[in-house]
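Annex B. Sample input.
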Amino acid sequence: MYNDYNDQNRSDSEYHYSYRSDDSGFQPEQTPAPVTPKKNKRGRAGKAVALVLCGALLIGGGFGAGWYLNNRDDTPAASVSGEPPEEENRDGQIQISGREKAPATTVSVTGGEKLTFPQVYKANVDSCVSINVSSTKVGYNIFGQPVQREAVSSGSGFILTADGYIVTNCHVVSGATGVQVTLDDGTVYSAEVVGSDADYDIAVLKVDPGDTKLKPVVLGSSDSLEVGEEVSTIGNPLGELTFSLTHGIVSCLDREINLDGTPFNMIQVDTAINPGNSGGPLFNSYGEVVGIVTAKTSSTGDGTAAEGLGFAIPINDVLHMIKDIMENGRVTSHAYMGVTPIDAVQVPQSGLRSGAYIEVVEGGPAEKAGLQTGDVITMVDTETITSANDLRSAVGSKSYQSGDKATITYVRNGKVYTTDITFGSTTEMPEEEAVPQSAVQPDNGGYDGSYGGYGYGSMEDFFNEFFGGGYGRQAA
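Annex B, continued. Sample output.
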């Protein structure tokens, strides 16, 4: 007989099988010599006596077993190995495992080995925060008169640096009059909004931990994600189920969502995401942050119910913007063209049914490139422009940053021209008339404690609700 064992202690994690014989050594099978039965005159009588004795033994054994079963202790002994007792199950018998809880261990994110979901949670829960926001909103009474009211909402976030910088969504803290963040150990800090960017729905907060060093997350690369890869998030669903872990898989990468001319290339996941999860971290299977949870949808354009559709902003797309906000209080790297575009079809004097009719900002990059009010832009480099939104999307995409150059194709007085432009920074944009936050983002984008208001008729309605219908850059 052979016994096999699995050598699982090797560093290369390979399975090696070894075969060894029993302790008694190999014993070849021997054929017994044939035995010739002897005739016995008393054979029949012996068989009768044997049958009588066997019957007596069976009856006695039955009585003994019955007495034992009626008088024994029914409580099964717990197995040290964690396996259920070997005795036969009976009606009413409860099986109790003797397995003890695994000892607590310290888990760190190294990027070198995959973690289980419990390990991802242990390694990162101290780096996640619950965010509670207070704000003043404007509503209307039954007479149609505007009235102000105090409102509270909730979201999630994660610690980026040990000295207190925290990342979340712009829509979580937009219009906030006060922000508090809570750590897993119950510590509460008042937070300052350092800056935000509505186009990419990111915001940076700062708390003062004093002499305490906070535990920051470890950032990974969203570019290394694959469809089907396991991911998880820790957040604050419904504003009260704090520090909840949910997990799933990446169901799509670079899912393009375009709102008000601003492109969003999202990570689509089937991880459970609910109001209050916004701003939380999306972890890969190594425990690294690869995205910022931003939204979920519950229905399609035709009203069909949809489940398992969540979205996260790829961390690689916004990390340089986050650093920009930390240093300058705002994103300074957005490309700025210095025009206000209108759909050409809406301007009869343009003579065109496609393109972006522009009004040029004095002293801006477009004027410096030779463009004039009344020109109709039809291409930016090789991208065709058919509308004002196309132009905003092209200029506001990740393809261009301040200082980059592009070739602009435009129509003037029925003739086609080209010119090269050097984009400026959005910090050069002239101050626009302020719009009340309540007018563009009525529920602060976080969870306000109610269960209504989350059934959207379309994806665009959904994102308008979260990011505000008037939040896209209207200038380019």
